């Protein structure tokens, strides 16, 4: 396994400085964000360390040389919109950009594109499935043509009580993963696995690794702490009782987690994803968060 980080936490650094930081701190890889430049509609969105709209052949060669000279690899390209957005024009735009990121990957020597399946939070799973069938098979066929593997992250993207229980992403549970892989059985379609999102759903993340290990193509290392007092006050149907934390500061048992990854033969990237508000006060805090997470995870990787 290769230890890296998700570049979304360093939006104020350009690509060269992100890579320099990764090299200086001894990271093996980095997942580079490829959002279209512009305003973000949520935290960690809108970060663009590679602009695929301006990726000429000379620029692609320059990026490949930068990575080779640094000794840091690109674990995957990241773009996390909502491809099943209820507004058709928005959906068309994000799917169009998603296809561009997929096409950019092989030009950069990258095999993996990480994203979300998406969801219309107002519709049932069955109703969303009809839209999924109209959108996703074509995206996966495009990935197959480009020799790229799509890694679907399992974050529910649930931000407010009004969205309960749907959120903005379908691919949140083992039952839905199984249905997705039955619907789209392509080997170019897999999981970008994050245990933190399973903690608060009370899903056994080690069992999930053992069941879906062959489908895991990329891993995010993020923790979650359950606030027992808030859970008591608001109940499981409330929000705000699960808090993103750095690895080692939450409720994930990282020894068991990595044991399960080893058991299924996973040998790919493990990228630290910082969403811990206690470490977001400054660039220095966010860099410190990456250093601290790396020191903790090195005992397992």
Provide an overview of this structure.
With 301 residues, the protein is α/β, with parallel strands linked by helices. The chain has one domain (2-297): TIM Barrel (Alpha-Beta Barrel). It is built from 10 helices and 10 strands. The strands form 2 sheets. An 8-stranded parallel beta barrel has the order 1-2-3-4-5-6-7-10, surrounded by 5 helices. A two-stranded antiparallel ribbon has the order 8-9. Strand 3 (73-78), helix 3 and strand 4 (112-115) form a beta-alpha-beta unit. Helix 3 (88-107) packs parallel to helix 4 (125-146) and helix 7 (205-212) runs parallel beside helix 9 (254-263).
Q: Which properties best describe this structure?
A:
single chain, 301 residues, alpha/beta, TIM Barrel, eight-stranded parallel barrel, two-stranded antiparallel sheet, 10 helices, 40% helix, globular
Question: Which helices and strands appear, and what pairs or packs with what?
Answer:
Blueprint: E1 2-6, H1 15-24, E2 29-33, H2 57-70, E3 73-78, H3 88-107, E4 112-115, H4 125-146, E5 149-153, H5 174-183, E6 189-193, H6 196-199, H7 205-212, E7 216-221, E8 223-226, H8 228-234, E9 242-245, H9 254-263, E10 269-272, H10 283-297
Parallel strand pairs: 1-2, 1-10, 2-3, 3-4, 4-5, 5-6, 6-7, 7-10
Antiparallel strand pairs: 8-9
Helix pairs in contact: 3-4, 7-9
Strand order of the largest sheet: 1-2-3-4-5-6-7-10
Q: What integer value in Å does the Rg equal?
A: 18 Å
Secondary structure tally, helices: 10
| CATH C-level category | Alpha Beta
Secondary structure: helix percent: 25-40%
Report the uncertain regions: none
The average pLDDT value, as a whole number, equals: 95
């Amino acid at each position: 396994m290769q230890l890296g980080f998700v570049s979304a936490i360093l939006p104020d650094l350009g690509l060269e400085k992100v890579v320099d930081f990764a090299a200086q701190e001894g990271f093996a890889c980095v997942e580079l964000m490829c959002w279209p430049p512009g305003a973000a509609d949520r935290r960690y969105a809108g970060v663009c360390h590679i602009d695929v709209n301006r990726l000429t052949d000379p620029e692609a060669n320059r990026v490949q040389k930068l990575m080779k000279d640094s000794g840091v690899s690109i674990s995957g390209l990241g773009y996390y919109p909502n491809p099943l957005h209820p507004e058709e024009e928005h959906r068309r735009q994000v799917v169009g950009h998603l296809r561009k990121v997929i096409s950019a990957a092989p030009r950069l020597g990258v095999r993996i594109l990480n994203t979300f399946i998406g969801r219309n939070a107002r519709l049932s799973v069955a109703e969303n499935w009809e839209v999924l069938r109209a959108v996703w098979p074509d995206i996966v066929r495009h990935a197959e043509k480009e020799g790229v593997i799509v890694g679907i992250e399992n974050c529910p993207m649930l931000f407010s009580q009004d969205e309960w229980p749907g959120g903005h992403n379908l691919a949140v549970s083992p039952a839905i993963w199984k249905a997705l892989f039955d619907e789209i059985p392509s080997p170019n379609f897999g999981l970008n696995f994050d245990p933190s999102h399973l903690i608060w759903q009370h899903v056994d993340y080690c069992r999930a690794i053992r069941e879906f290990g062959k489908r895991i193509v990329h891993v995010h290392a993020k923790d979650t702490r359950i606030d027992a007092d808030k859970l008591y006050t608001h109940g499981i149907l409330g929000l705000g009782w699960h808090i993103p934390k750095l690895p080692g500061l939450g409720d994930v048992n990282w020894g068991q987690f990595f044991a399960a990854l080893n058991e299924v033969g996973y040998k790919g990237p493990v990228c630290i994803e910082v969403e811990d508000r206690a470490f977001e006060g400054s660039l220095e805090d966010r860099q410190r968060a990456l250093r601290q997470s790396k020191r903790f995870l090195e005992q397992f990787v």
